[in-house]
Amino acid sequence: MKNFIKNKKIMITFISCLVVIVLVVIGITAMRMIAKNSSIGVEAAKKFAYIDAGVKEKNINHVDVDFEYKDSTYVYCVDFDTDKKDYHYYVNASNGIILEKKIVKKKKSDSKKEDKEKSKKKKKKRSSNKSDESEEYSSGGKKIQETTKKIKSKKDNDEEDEEDVVIGMDKAKSIAVSSAGESMNNVIFTLAVLDRDTYNLQFYSGNTEYNYSIDAFTGSVKSAYSTDYEGSDSE
């Protein structure tokens, strides 16, 4: 009888612990889902990382994005690479601020291997283009002119894209802080987002709050104002 009562108590304790663990797991899962649903999203996280790195999406070989909980904050871990570098970014899931980043240059052996693979693809593509052109020529010559026109147009578009490069979040911050007459070591940023073609920045130094809008492509200051804690404004 005593053994039965003892075993019953042990069973009740075990079931209670199991219920608590299940409730905790459900709670954590629910919080994670809520945080993810209200976050900026995977595509926006990638965009913030690409812009800060100054890298175009078409030049990226591979990208991997994970939703994680790091240092009491939900973040997107964005890993991607180009022919020359590997990038590792932690992006705040709620506002897109870059919390942490690591950029590593690839070894020469890796770069050479990728260059060889690209060279093979280009040769294969050229061979295919030559074959297409000879077939088109045999049917009259008009199609060759149309093909040449399309290739030229694509090249022109690529050249325009090369000029369309943003300055990056770090550069925008540096311009704003310098314009304010402050030092990066003495300021605390509370807002740093890219809105289309403008970096919107807010930071503090001492008792003063600064608000800046920086052109994302030229780095020029679109607007700026500061406010002290006492309420007096200065343009």
Q: If you had to describe this structure to a student in words, what would you say it looks like?
A:
The chain is of the alpha+beta class and 235 residues long. The protein folds into 4 domains: 1-38; 42-105, Nuclear Transport Factor 2, Chain: A (Roll); 123-162; 169-234, Nuclear Transport Factor 2, Chain: A, CATH 3.10.450. Helix content is 48%, strand content 29%. It contains 5 helices and 9 strands; from the N terminus they run ααββββαααβββββ. The chain has helices spanning 2-37, 42-53, 108-138, 142-163, 169-179, and strands at 62-70, 73-81, 85-92, 98-105, 188-195, 198-205, 208-215, 221-228, 233-234. The protein has a 5-stranded antiparallel β-sheet with strand order 5-6-7-8-9. The protein has a 4-stranded antiparallel β-sheet with strand order 1-2-3-4. A hairpin with a 2-residue loop joins strand 1 and strand 2. The N and C termini lie far apart (85 Å). The relative contact order is 0.08. Mean pLDDT is 78; it is low at 131-163.
CATH topology of the largest domain: Nuclear Transport Factor 2, Chain: A
Classify the secondary structure makeup into a structural class.
alpha+beta
Rg from alpha-carbon coordinates: 28 Å
Q: Count the helices. How many?
A: 5
Highest CATH level, the class of the largest domain: Alpha Beta
Principal-axis shape: flat
Strand order of the largest sheet: 5-6-7-8-9
The topology string of helices and strands comes to HHEEEEHHHEEEEE
Helix content: 40-55%
How many beta strands in the DSSP annotation?
A: 9
